[in-house]
Specification:
heterotrimer; A alpha/beta (about 280); B mainly alpha (about 300); C mainly alpha (about 325); A: about 280 residues; alpha/beta; 11 strands; B: mainly alpha; MetI-like fold; about 70% helix; MetI-like (chain C); transmembrane (chain C)
Amino acid sequence: MALLEIENLTVEFDTVDGRFRALDGVSYSIDAGEVLAVVGESGSGKSVAMLAVMGLLANNGHLWADKLEFEGYDLLTMSAKQRRDIIGKDISMIFQEPIASLNPCFTVGAQIDETLKEHTEMSRGERKARAIELLDSVGMPDSAKALKKYPHQMSGGQCQRVMIAMAIACKPKLLIADEPTTALDVTIQKQILDLLLDLQHESGMGLIMITHDMAVVAETADRVVVQYKGKKMEEADVLSLFESPQNSYTKALLSALPENATGDRLPTVSDFHLGDGGAA
Amino acid sequence: MADVTQNSAPDTRFELIVNFWRHFRTNRGAVAGLIFFIALVIIALGAWFIAPHSPIEQYRDALLLPPAWQEGGDWSYVLGTDAVGRDLLSRLIYGSQYSLFIGVVVVSVALVVGVCLGLVAGTFGGWIDTFIMRIMDIILAFPSLLLALVLVAILGPSLLNAMIAIAVVQQPYYVRLTRASVMSEMSREYVMAARVSGVRTLRLMFVTVLPNCMAPLIVQAALSFSTAILDAAALGFLGMGAQPPTPEWGTMLAESREFILRAPWVVTFPGLAILTTVLAINLIGDGLRDALDPKLKRS
Amino acid sequence: MLRLILKKLGLLIPTFIGVTLTSFFFIRLLPGDPILLLAGERGVSPERYNELMIQFGYNDPIWQQYLTYLGNLFQGDLGASIVTKQPVLQEFMTLFPATVELGVCAMLFAVIVGLPAGIIAAVKRGKTLDHTVMTTALAGYSMPIFWWGLLLIILFSGMLGWTPVSGRISFMYWIEPVTGFMLIDTLLSDEPGAFGSAVSHLILPTIVLGTIPLAVIARQTRSAMLEVLDEDYVRTARAKGLSNFRVIGIHALRNALIPVITIIGLQIGVLFAGAILTESIFSWPGVGKWMVDSIFRRDYPVVQGGLLMIAVIVMIVNLIVDLMYGLINPKIRHTE
C-alpha cells in the first residue's frame, strides 16, 4: 500500500470570471521512504494538489477525486476533526516564505511547543526538551536561546530551519516541502536541501518536494512528476527523466537549463510550441 | 478582473471615470446610497414645489397631530404636526436643504483650507511644516464636538458659526492627508522631472502634484460630509447651532425633546432623516474608497 | 523602550503648550469685557472693576498674564466657577468619576460586542451574515446618538417601563461617594437594591455612548482580520492541525489586535464628544453635561478649565495607547 495515493484529482476555484480549473485529473502516489519531486512552472498547479491533501484549499476551492488516501484512510470522506489529527502529525508541510510562515507575535519556542501540545501527551518540561532537541537536529546554533526569539529576529534560513523543526516535531510519515529554498540565498539553499535529505534518510519518511528548479530535482528526487497547466505531463524515475524525457514539455523544461544551452541565448519554455496539454 | 484594469493604465480622463464607475457599480450599498442621495438633492432643490405646507406656518387647530396612518391622524399632515402645529413632513423636506448646505459649505471650506495648508507643509517642509502640523496636533487634541461647542460659544450660536466651527475642527484631517500624499509624491520621478525642467513651485504644487493626491481626499470629503451633518445636528440639538424656528433636523429634535413620551413621532422622524442621510453618504464613501483605492478593496 | 517613552513625551510638549495657549486665549477671545463676563449679569461698580482688573492681572502685558496662568496651572489652580464659586479643579474631580464610569462601561460594551462581530464578519466574508453585520455597523457609525438616546428612552422607559430616564441612581438612595464610581459605592454601602438601581441607570447611557465606538471597532476588526487571515502564518497554523478556534482566535486575532487596539485608543476622544451628548440626554452628572451647562450659564472659567483638563486627559490616554502599541507588537518591542 502506498503512503499517499492521489487518483484523478481535480480542483477548481471560483473567481470573478467564473470557475478556474487549477488541477485537472492528476494522479500520482508516493511510498514510505521515497523522495518524489513535483515540478512545473508557477501556475502549473503543483502546490494545489498538496494543499488539497492538507485540507488547506481556500474557501472558494472545490475538489473531486477518484481516490485521495493516506495510509489507506480516505481523506475525502474524513471529518475535519479526523483530518486535523493527521495533519501536522503524520503529514506535515513547509512553505516557500519561511519568515512570513511563522507567526510574528509568538516566540519560536511557543510555536514549536504548540504543535507538540496539539499532537502528543508530553508534559510541559518534556515538550521544552523536545523543542531544543528538534532545533539541534535542524542545525540551529544555541537552540535554548533560539526558543525565546521572535521570527523577525532571525534570518530567512534560520526561520526555515524552525519551520522544518516544527514539521518534523511529531515524526511525520510524510513531509511536503513546497518550494522550501526558493526564497533563500543561494548559499543557504544547499544547506536546507541537505538538511531535508538527511532528515528523510534518518527517519525513512516520505518526502514530496515541490519545485520549479530542475537542479533541485536532480539533487534530491528518486522519482519525478512533471506538471503543466494543471495536468500531469510525465512521471518517471529521475535518471530516465533526465536521460530520455518522453514529453515535449519536459524536453522544453530540460533545454531551458543553463547547462544544456547550446546557442548564444538560453531557450525558454515558450520557445517550444506546445499544444495545450501536449501530453505524450 | 481587478488586475487587468489596474495594469492597463487608463490614458484619458474619460477612461478613468468609466473605470471608476465600473468598480463603484459593483457595490450595491454604494449605489443605493447614491440613489438616495440624488433623491435627497432633488427634494432639497424642489422643496418649494414638493412640500405640502410652509415649514414655519403654525396650524393652531392641529397641534401634535399623529402621523396620518395612526388613529387621529390627518392625511393633509402625513407625518403629523409638532407642538405648535407645524407640518412635520414639510419641515423635514425643507430641513434637507440645511443639511446638504451644511455639508457642502463645511466640506468646501475644510477642503480648500486643509489642502492649501497640507500642500504648503508638504512642499516646503522645515519649520513651516513643523509649525502647521503642530497647530493641527493641537486642534486634534480636543474632542471635536467639544472644540466646536467652545468655538460657537465664542462666536455666538447660529448656523453660520456652527458651520465655521465644524470646518475648523475637520480641516486637520485634510492637512494630514494632503501632506502625506504630497510627501510621497514628491519623491517620485515625474516630480523630479518637472523640477529639473524648471516648473515653478506653485505650478508644481497645484498642477503636477495635487491631482495625484485626489483619491484619498475624495474619500475623506465624503466621510466628512456625513460627519458635518451629524455634528451640525448635534450642535443644533444642544441649542448651539441653527436657531428655532429654522427647520434644521437637529434643532427640530431639540424642540421636540419634551414631547418624547407624549408624541414620539416628532422625535422619531427628524432623527430618522439624519440617520438615513448620513448612512447614505457613508455608503457612498465606502464605495468611493473601494473603487478609488484597489489596495483597500479587501477591507 | 525608555528612550521611546521619552521621545514621545518630548513630542507632546509643543502640543501641551498649544493646548494651554488655547484655553488661555479662550477667555480673552470672548466678545465683551472679561471682568464683566466674570462678574455675570449683576455687573460691578467702577472701583470693584479696577480692583478686579489688578487682581486678575489684566493690566499686565499678555505674555506675563500667560506665564501667571501657566504658573497657577502647575499649582492646580484652574480658577473658580462664577456660579458655584467652587474651584474648577475640585468640581472637575467630583464629576469626572461619573464620566469615567460611563465611558468605561461604554467601551467595554463596544469591545465585547464589536470585536466578536468583526471577527465573525471576517470569517464569514461575503456571506449574508457578513453583509448584515457590516450594514448594521455602518448604521451604528452613522447614528446621531442624541436621537438614538431619545429613541431608546421612548422604547425602554416609555413603552416598556424597564429603565429609568435620567440620573445615576434612584432618588430613594443616598450613597456616600467613596470612590465616586456609583457601581463600587453602591456595593460598599449597605443599601439593599442600590446596586441594581445604579446598573439600571447605566444601561441606556452605556448603549448610546458605546454605539459609535462599537461600529468603528467592528469595522476595523473585520478589515484587520481579513488582512491577517490571508497571511502565510495562518496557513501554517492550519497545517499544524490546530482547531479553527485556535487558528482564528489565537493566531489570527493576536495579530489583528495590534491595529484594533490603536483604534480603540483613538476612540477616547470620540467618547468625550459622545459623553457631551449622552450626559445631556440622560442628565448624567458628569463632565460632559457640566461643560454644556457651563457654556449656557456663561460660566467661562469652568469652560476654560474643563477644556484644558479634557484635552490633557485625551493627550495622556493617546500616549498610553501609543506605548501599548509598542508593547503588544513584538516587532517594535524587540527592536534595539
